[in-house]
Design a protein that fits this description.
Layout (H helix, E strand, L loop, with lengths): L1 E5 L4 H10 L7 H9 L3 E7 L2 E10 L4 E9 L8 H19 L4 E4 L6 H5 L20
Parallel strand pairs: 4-5
Antiparallel strand pairs: 1-2, 2-3, 3-4
Helix pairs in contact: 1-2
The structure holds coenzyme A.
Coenzyme A binds next to strand 4, helix 3 and helix 4.
């Protein structure tokens, strides 16, 4: 049965999914530090087997980043990604009550924008929202 858990910091599960979606898992030492510094996460299980994951990083009040939304390929297309995003957005809504100016960002892989648009995300093409940039060296 599909079940969802919050704030599980399991390095092996995270790396298993990272490999499964083709991103190439980090060294376990790096994953451990990344998970230790994660603000909020959801892990989805089929019984006890990890099948999906997503997390929020950030300062917990002004800026949050949604990262690493991943569903095991054989489970994709069954609304598990939707389940993860809904749970994550419940958490961001709680923070928004504390700080209405909260900004929630994410970086979508190419051609994944449609998935995120369903949850209200837009492309940043407006100077007021800040254009997206990333350090490239
Ligand atoms: C993207 C991902 C998280 C979606 O999870 P999922 O469980 O397969 O998605 P869902 O079943 O909840 O689909 C929800 C909706 O998004 C759409 N969608 C799903 N994957 C999509 C994709 N790759 N591109 C565009 N739309 C997508 C579905 O068609 C569905 O639309 P509908 O509501 O009109 O039926 C999953 O496919 C995945 O892990 N992919 C590999 C890793 C990845 O790219 N993660 C995102 C990083 S930016």
């Amino acid at each position: 049965m599909i079940n969802i858990k919050e704030n599980i910091k399991n390095v092996k599960e995270f790396n298993l999914l990272y490999d499964a979606v083709g991103w190439g898992a980090y060294d376990e030492r790096i994953t451990k530090k990344a998970l230790d510094n994660t603000f909020y996460s959801v892990s989805v299980y089929d019984d006890k087997k990890i099948v999906g994951y997503g997390r929020i990083i950030g300062d917990a009040i002004c800026f949050l980043y949604i990262q690493d939304i991943m569903v095991k390929p054989e489970y994709q297309g069954n609304k598990i990604g939707t389940m993860i995003m809904k749970k994550i957005l419940e958490r961001t809504s709680e923070i928004k009550k504390e700080n209405p100016d909260l900004r929630v960002y994410l970086g979508a892989s190419k051609d994944r924008e449609k998935f995120y648009e369903k949850f209200g995300f837009i492309k940043r093409t407006d100077a007021n929202l800040g254009y997206g940039m990333i350090l490239n060296k």
